[in-house]
Amino acid sequence: MIVEFSVVPIGRGEALSGLVARVVDIVDKSGLPYQLTAMGTIVEGEWDEVFGLIRLCHETMRGQASRVYTHITVDDREKTSGRIKGKVAEVEAALGRALKK
Amino acid sequence: MIVEFSVVPIGRGEALSGLVARVVDIVDKSGLPYQLTAMGTIVEGEWDEVFGLIRLCHETMRGQASRVYTHITVDDREKTSGRIKGKVAEVEAALGRALKK
Amino acid sequence: MIVEFSVVPIGRGEALSGLVARVVDIVDKSGLPYQLTAMGTIVEGEWDEVFGLIRLCHETMRGQASRVYTHITVDDREKTSGRIKGKVAEVEAALGRALKK
Amino acid sequence: MIVEFSVVPIGRGEALSGLVARVVDIVDKSGLPYQLTAMGTIVEGEWDEVFGLIRLCHETMRGQASRVYTHITVDDREKTSGRIKGKVAEVEAALGRALKK
User: Fold this and answer.
1) Residue C63 within a domain
2) Is residue B101 part of a domain?
3) Predicted ipTM?
4) I need a surface site. Which of B30, B87, C29, D34 has the fewest CB within 10 A?
5) Which domain covers residue C28, as residue numbers?
6) Whole-Å CA distances, D65 to B10, B68, C77, C82, D51
């Protein structure tokens, strides 16, 4: 399955990149395929590994902030590997052209 | 923590209430405090119990549909009990009046 | 269409009920059917009226906080009226029993 | 502001890339800065231009499917330009290294 998530601390000021970097470091070291975007992290794996990772990210942030909002979107379909890039490639194929990156 | 989630099957037609009812039945039998709304289910509990429940709901729906989107929002703050109704009551108190139900 | 939204100020502390109350007051005075839940506000109407309302709520919050996250979920289907309560009633009918409120 | 959105048709089968391509084509021709990811489209602009675009995408999809879910997340902060790549760069700077792309 492919999962996007974001972990937002409330009450820690508006500049979040330092706190977010700690979370991204955990994702980077997890070994799971992922992509960091301006709005969250997209990760691919089985339920246990993905939600184990999200829990670790969430609890790390909760250690830094007394209130945390975490948003998670799961797209679960038979084919489960290579979809972080594969889904974009499918849309480009249907569109008949590459999109600017 | 308080968590809202929705489990949406793709490709099973547009009338989803029968499929959603199976999921709500699982929530109802979990014993966790919850509220069903027009847009999802709000549930309260610890990470393990809440995410164990969401996984069961998600996998039950995946047994009925080959593609499932599940959206989850976690609001995690120190005080963890009685917040499904408590958060609405706090807003009403700040507003200085009750809202129509 | 039926729309759930939440407006979260970042960097204004963790107790948000006072700020949220201002937003709910705007919703209450809009005249649109709505329900306040622990995780957001569900409102029903046409695109222009719903998104005009959400914009007003978002900008009011931005007047109070230098960074605001707003989450919006639209469920748009032919039948457009009475669905805040109607969708829950449909699930209860499919389930064959009322859910505790 | 920076906004992520996804437009999901219900009841049109599970392979959505053809329908999604139509929506992406609209985004591509809007002239707004954007990024297509595996989980949605991230776009940057003022409220009117971003929500005008999302409405057009949503209504185009509704022309193809009798039920459509649209999810929108707004991150609205003072600095409003160049943040699709800028937010990722800030996290990499805080992390002290580049992330694999």
Assistant:
1) yes
2) no
3) 0.92
4) C29
5) 2-95
6) 12, 17, 9, 21, 20
